[in-house]
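Protein 1 of 2
SEQ + STRUCT:
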Amino acid sequence: MNPRGHAPLPAVTGSDAIATDAQAGCEYDAAGHTDKRQNRRHAMKHWNAATRYTGRILLALLLACTNGAFAGDAVDVRVSASVLAVCKIQSVRDIQFGTLDPSQATNTFAEGAVAFMCTRGVDYRLVVDKGQNYDAGAALRRMKSGDGSFLPYQLGAESFSGTGTGFRSAINIPLSASIRGSDYIDLPAVAFSDVIRLVLEP
């Protein structure tokens, strides 16, 4: 009898003991293998889930990069302009000799002017033509009266040249002219006039 009053179990010896131990070991091994297989299945399940999640992220990133590469593009756009070489006459002032007194026939001077602008850096040339009553034989510009009389006059210069300064301020060119007293001392008391043309070339 054991301390609790139960009859002792019969001792297992020999081949029976070996069989019993083997059976217990198999049961233990079977249980252990079962647990390991379950653990492996759980691990593989989590691994597969994590792999699928990671794969989705990588696929999304790849698609984003791919879409960005194919959606964007670059091209060069030329921007150009050219500034015109141009001259513009702004104003003119007529040449007016006023009233001439043949009793005091002296050389008389008068001055007109022209103002113009040209593109900065552009070379210009201002040319004065011969007028409407030019005497080619005498090489004289002349004013003409209504009765057909002529009064010669001279210009200080027939052409001017320089370089444009832009369109902020005008270039002023004086047009100096003169009449000799001897050219009107015997003329009738009539009005004389001529028209000359200025040509401005850039």
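Protein 2 of 2
SEQ + STRUCT:
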Amino acid sequence: MSEQEKTQQQADEETKAETEEKSEEEEQTETQKSETEKESSEEKKPKQESKEESKKEKKSSKKKNKRKRKRRKRNRLRGFPSMIYKEIKILNESDYFKENYSDDDFSIIIIATDMRRAAFVTSKNGQIKVESVMNKPEEIKSAVKKADGKIETDLETLLGVITGKVNPLKAILKRKLKLKGLFKVIKFVKYFKVVSHIKKQK
């Protein structure tokens, strides 16, 4: 074999080795790339999961807030019960009322026959609570059973009795006023006098 052939053979072997090295390097880089891609995809997954979880949490919180709003709307007093509460809510802020009427423990239903809602009033531990009852036979019947007293009349007569402009006995005789649990009713009507007394002191 001539020197030229030998050198050619060496060159061929070197190029072969270089190509093999290159291919090995390429393989290594590819494996490294695939590993990094896997790692990045694995990192992305928990991020995506966390995003989904946060979205779910936001949705659930929105639903809870909607439910709360609905409850508030339901519990919010409207119409006639709201009017009664506005008249006597000052008693809940009064120390005079707490000192003198904390022993009172009774409930009374006030039915204004010409109004959509009735007012269920509870007096306990010097605090007044007013609830709304729909003016429907079934609901009124169950509320009357729970209550210790009842006032049933039209709005004009009721306001007249409360302010003292209408004589309750005359209203009863004219069948404009129906009462149940007279002593509890008298106690409740007195509250309006207490309200005027507190307002005068202020």
